[in-house]
Amino acid sequence: MVEPAKISVGRPAAAGDSSARAAGTRPPGATDERSAARAVQQMFDEIAPRYDLLNHVLSMNVDRLWWRRTARTFKHILSRSDSRVLDLCAGTGDMSVALHAVAKKMNGSAAICALDFSHAMLQHGLPKYNAKKIQPVEADALQLPLADNSFDLVVSAFGFRNLANYDAGLSEIFRVLKPGGEVGILDFSEPGGLTGKLYGFYFRRVLPRIGALISGLRSAYEYLPASVQKFPAPELMLARMEALGFKEASWTPYTLGIAGLYRARKP
Length: 267
Ligand SMILES: C[S@@+](CC[C@H](N)C(=O)[O-])C[C@H]1O[C@@H](n2cnc3c(N)ncnc32)[C@H](O)[C@@H]1O
Prior knowledge:
Elements: E1 7-8, H1 18-21, H2 33-59, H3 62-73, H4 75-78, E2 84-88, H5 94-105, E3 111-116, H6 119-131, E4 135-138, E5 151-157, H7 166-176, E6 177-188, H8 193-215, H9 218-230, H10 234-243, E7 247-254, E8 259-265
Parallel strand pairs: 2-3, 2-5, 3-4, 5-6
Antiparallel strand pairs: 1-7, 6-8, 7-8
Helix pairs in contact: 2-6, 2-8, 3-5, 8-9
The structure holds S-adenosylmethionine.
């Protein structure tokens, strides 16, 4: 499959940029960070029992390829025996499982910690966490109960976009990474051109209907495209990462830019 090229950071975010103003996600009805976080947590608690099923149905299993590709990107860290890895906004654990699989394949023995603030999401992931000896932690990504400079790798798949304050989330990731540590943020994006039009139709019109049908929660699947729309475009996200101290920030589109991986390093 032909992929659009990887992009690197170009210019700092200007004060007037629309996404410089987008502090973080705001589900309908949320007026500030606290109410946004509460709404997100409640939404994931509610969809947790159907989350895995819906993920695979709605993405037609492409999500598995994205998790694996992201994990493989960090095989140089996962192959080590002493690596400490944090899966941020881990939910039911599929990103953690993909990281574990790569570590195992490379004969590494990374210690993986899966953090999420939705009790129900972690609870539904427990069979996966227990089987792979992954440590689940119930906590807020914006106030990590973790020591400074303690992780070699922080990965977040489809979770970062849901934070009520993106800069605060990046700052916490930066704080807990060791010098030389790396971050990988996998999330949806909005492709342009014909792909964008077709995908936009599926994402905004079809997906919320199927999501509502299976989960009984229409609002959660209307929130998904809305949250992607509010998320900063790649150049702006990269500029935010560099402004907060990360180096070598880049974004690699996956599947024609429907999703993509942000990478950067703590100097
Ligand atoms: C779309 S799910 C992604 C789960 C998993 N990473 C995956 O790829 O399937 C987003 C997750 O982010 C979690 N989340 C959102 N905001 C959070 C926060 N502030 N702290 C911790 N977890 C958060 C939600 O509870 C939810 O489990």
